[in-house]
Task: inverse folding
């Protein structure tokens, strides 16, 4: 009995071990099976996501053949625009227009207002800017974007307001007095500021930002023409001028409005933060400068003191004019006029000159031909005894500049390849 009991005990012990092992194996198998199913589900989801992603990429890229650029879900053509801004924008947009026969539809993000027709077709441009010019104003969208900075100036005006400003400015630009003012101010700035700054950089072997130097030059010049005030941006050591800094910040913040959803920048303006806060602060600086200049000029005109050389800047010209009701223009209108012409003359001239010198650096043979032409003009001057007062080769008369046909052609080609204002915004007016 005892032996049998021991056998039974031993058997019972073996049976219990086998059951535990079997249970452990079964548990491990179930765990592995569950894990396998889980991983299989993950793999299936991953495959589905990869398939969807590939489909979106292929579908978006196929749109390039029909629309010029890939059209991504929600983002539209914005990724391509960001890429284009990081490269040579002129070459990028020209290549797209060539492939699309001069016209294509740019589709921005679904949550933005970046939807427009881009065209360079001469027939379309003639229709927009000449034949049906009245049907294509700048429009409400553009005016709302830049109104804070430009007000009702010529860049932001339509219809009668635009026509009157353009007519008045055109008459003034062609006047002898205004041309003399422009010539004198440029002569003074180039010889007393630009050349000394460049000479100093050469003597000290200091690297300079030529685009910044040219921007300072044109800013001083256009302020003298528009306001009759010299801000001194191109003075020695290139100081930071508060008005110039405020104007630059305001321009930059205004441009940023065009690349973000309208609701976003309006929300930022409402809460006064981000770029809208910067814009508000910089416009305040611009307004304070313009207000002080206008007040000072009014006091000068009220004294009725006849100077030997009357002022002929734009501010003085418009102050002496009357509106359609026979009243003097408001300070706000005068401010808008001057700010718009500063924007017109500052960036356009400096950008054109920057591209010109950049192209000269890339084309040594063109630079040599320009120097040959200048030397030829100087040699003709030296042979003429009547021109002793222009013996300095750095000073050229208008008659001499007209003889520089090759230089004129190079400047024209620069503007053709890299226009200072490559984009002109228009809206269609429904009637």
Result:
């Amino acid at each position: 009995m005892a032996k049998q009991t021991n056998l039974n005990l031993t058997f019972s012990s073996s049976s219990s071990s086998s059951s535990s092992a079997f249970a452990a194996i079964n548990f491990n198998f179930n765990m592995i099976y569950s894990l396998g199913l889980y991983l299989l589900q993950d793999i299936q989801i991953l495959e589905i996501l990869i398939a969807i992603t590939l489909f979106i990429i292929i579908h978006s890229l196929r749109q390039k053949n029909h629309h010029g650029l890939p059209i991504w879900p929600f983002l539209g053509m914005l990724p391509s625009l960001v890429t284009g801004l990081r490269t040579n924008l002129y070459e990028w947009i020209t290549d797209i227009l060539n492939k699309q026969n001069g016209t294509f539809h740019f589709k921005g993000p679904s949550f933005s207002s970046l939807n427009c027709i881009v065209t360079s077709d001469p027939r379309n441009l003639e229709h927009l800017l000449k034949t049906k010019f009245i049907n294509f104003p700048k429009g409400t969208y553009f005016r709302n974007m830049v109104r804070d900075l430009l007000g009702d100036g010529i860049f932001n005006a339509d219809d009668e307001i635009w026509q009157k400003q353009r007519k008045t400015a055109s008459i003034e630009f062609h006047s002898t007095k205004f041309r003399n003012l422009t010539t004198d101010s440029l002569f003074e700035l180039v010889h007393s500021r630009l050349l000394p700054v460049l000479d100093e950089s050469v003597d000290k072997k200091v690297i300079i930002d030529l685009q910044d130097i040219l921007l300072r030059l044109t800013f001083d010049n256009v302020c003298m023409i528009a306001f009759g005030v010299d801000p001194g941006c191109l003075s020695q050591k290139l100081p930071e001028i508060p008005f110039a800094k405020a104007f630059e910040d305001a321009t930059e913040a205004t441009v940023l409005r065009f690349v973000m959803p309208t609701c976003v920048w309006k929300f930022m303006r409402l809460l006064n933060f981000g770029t809208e806060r910067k814009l508000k602060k910089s416009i305040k600086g611009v307004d304070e400068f313009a207000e002080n200049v206008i007040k000072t000029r009014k006091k000068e005109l009220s004294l009725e003191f006849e100077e030997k050389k009357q002022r002929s800047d734009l501010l003085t010209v418009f102050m002496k004019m009357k509106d359609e009701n026979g009243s003097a223009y408001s300070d706000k209108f005068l401010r808008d006029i001057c700010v718009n012409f500063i924007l017109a003359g500052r960036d356009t001239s400096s950008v054109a000159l920057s591209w010109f010198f950049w192209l000269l650096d890339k084309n040594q043979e063109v630079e040599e031909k320009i120097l040959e032409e200048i030397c030829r003009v100087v040699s003709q001057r030296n042979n003429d005894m009547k021109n002793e007062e222009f013996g300095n080769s750095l000073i050229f008369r208008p008659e001499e500049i007209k003889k520089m046909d090759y230089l004129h052609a190079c400047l024209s080609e620069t503007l053709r390849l890299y226009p200072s204002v490559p984009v002109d915004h228009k809206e269609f007016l429904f009637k």
